[in-house]
Amino acid sequence: MNLIEKIRLKFFIPSGFPYARYLKDKGFLRRQGTGCFIAKNAGMPDGYLTAIGDNVWITDGCQLLCHDASVIMLNIRDASHLDRVAPITIGDHVFLGNRTTILPGITLGSHVIVGAGSVVTRDIPDGEVWAGNPARHICTTQSYRDRLDEATGDLPWYPLLEGAGRHVFDPHLETKLRKARIAHFFSEEETSP
Question: What does the pLDDT average to over 111-116?
Fold first, then answer.
């Protein structure tokens, strides 16, 4: 990558959807679907071995590791030629919480949520929520969605969400949501001496 391209990437291509489009245009990943969100500080050192589907969210600090670099130390110590490399495949509609680590050879199905800070050491089937280190099954994506649906309906700012249509991120709506959330969570603090 030349200096001009590095400057363009650092200052003119923001994290998230624009960065994902940039990576797709460059052919960085083995396969990349549409509508993806990729944080600029996500680590994907082996893009040529990484395939992601549509609407995949790779958030801040995630690491997709298609190799096990510990073999380098063993090779030096033992004068050996060990290698541990395997592809990572991620289905459609997958969310990787902040600082999630995916190890070599892992396949994540579609409609999967992985909680923040998780280390995924096993394949995850379609429609499941996993979290932890090592990541373990928590519930189905549908049961998680059902719980969120019930809880969201009780929020004081729900009418704002309901009237907005599809909710991803709208800066105009976000201003109203922040005011409503501050009023709900901190109204007692503001009136205290």
Answer: 98
Q: Check if 167 is active-site.
A: no
N-term to C-term CA, the chain: 57
What confidence score (pLDDT) does residue 162 get?
83
Active-site residue, selected from the candidate residues 67, 81, 167, 172: 67
pTM over 0.85: yes
**Residues 162, 157: Cα–Cα separation, whole Å:** 9
- Strand, coil or helix: 9: helix
* 120 Cβ neighbours under 8 A, 6+ residues apart: 100, 101, 102, 103, 106, 108, 114, 130, 134, 135
Average pLDDT over residues 129-134: 98
Q: CA 87, CA 105: separation in Å to the nearest integer? A: 5
Cis peptide bond N-terminal to 87, omega within 30:
no
